[in-house]
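Hey team,

Filing this mostly as a record. A colleague (T.K.) asked me to run one chain through the structure pipeline before their review meeting, and I want the input and output archived in the tracker in case anyone asks later how it was produced. No errors, nothing strange. Just documentation.

Input sequence:
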Amino acid sequence: MNPVYSVGKITLYIKTMFMRDGVLPRVTVEGEVSNLKYHSSGHIYFTLKDADAALRCTMFKDSRRNGLTFQMQEGDKVQVLGRIGVYERDGVYQLYSDRIVRSGLGELYERFEQLKKKLYAEGLFDESHKKPLPLYPKRVGIVTSRTGAALQDIVSILHRRNPYVQPILVPAQVQGEGASMTVVRAIKRLVRENVDVIIVGRGGGSIEDLWAFNEENVARAVYDCPVPVISCVGHETDTTIIDYVADLRAPTPSAAAELSVREADELLTRLADYHSEFTFAVMDRISKLRDKLSALGRMMALQKPTVRLMRRRERLEVIEKNIRTAMDTRLEREKHRLSMYAARLEGVSPAKKLAGGYGYVSDADGKAVTTASGRKAGDEIRVFLKDGELLTEVKEVKLLQDNERR
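Output structure:
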């Protein structure tokens, strides 16, 4: 007897078979869109059909962010990349979509991925090659269509933010055959115009519309450009090759203009601050130099001959005064000493003793006679008195006895 299975087990078995199949987990299906429904949850439900069959399809919100770049409509012929799986609740198989492109664009996406891998391997996307934007650009180069809305947005915002900045447009063809060459020529010309930064971009569109900015020659022109380049191709969800190569990627042309220049008011405020700081520094420097000059002037004045002579004369006068004072002091001291010596001499003065009745006796030769011994009668002696001298002759010599001497 054949085994009996539940619906769930059979459905799970079929689902497993789909998952293990060599083709169904990654397949691209082409067909016409019908029964299209954009759900409030963000998911998309639709059917792909052709003349032979129909296939239910689902694209979840997370896949939709990067997998669908245009507004899909009933009747569109598209190619859907995804996996075939089983929806167990309804017991139906369907295509779970990862990416949806208009038919004929699958080759473009393949070329896009191949070029992206090639340039990445060569290092064209490396951050080390990104050039910083100038702080205060004077000339902003613009590469876009002369008639597109992107140009008006860029110029308007540049003028609003900083009317002193000069926008320089080199128009280019931004879509269609030969567009990439016009973009390359415009970039090279702006380099010769000595601009400070270059904005390259256009408004939104399909992958075919934006394809000029996915060409290798444009990517290499941006990489080789010595001037910083801002890319702004399409809307925020659009990504092109030059977005990876450019020094800065802006989500829109308007955002590129915002990023390229600072507001004039900010610049003027900063300049005013710099002016105040510079003025203060200069005035402080002048004040210090003036003080130094005054000090040097005083020093110079002191070095003048007349001033030096005057100062030397003042020093001599001080020295002379000090010498005179010292001499007066010394003279007074010597006078005092002389008075003392005079008083002492007066006490032992012979003249004073002579005045008191004493005399001074000497022999005829002038030698002092202090004793009677050794004298004899007939010797001549001289006696000096207060008012003169006596010349006499010894008549008799009488010597005192020892007891009389005591």
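Quick notes for T.K.: The first strand starts at residue 27 and ends at 38. The chain has four domains: 7-104, 111-262, 266-309, 352-405.
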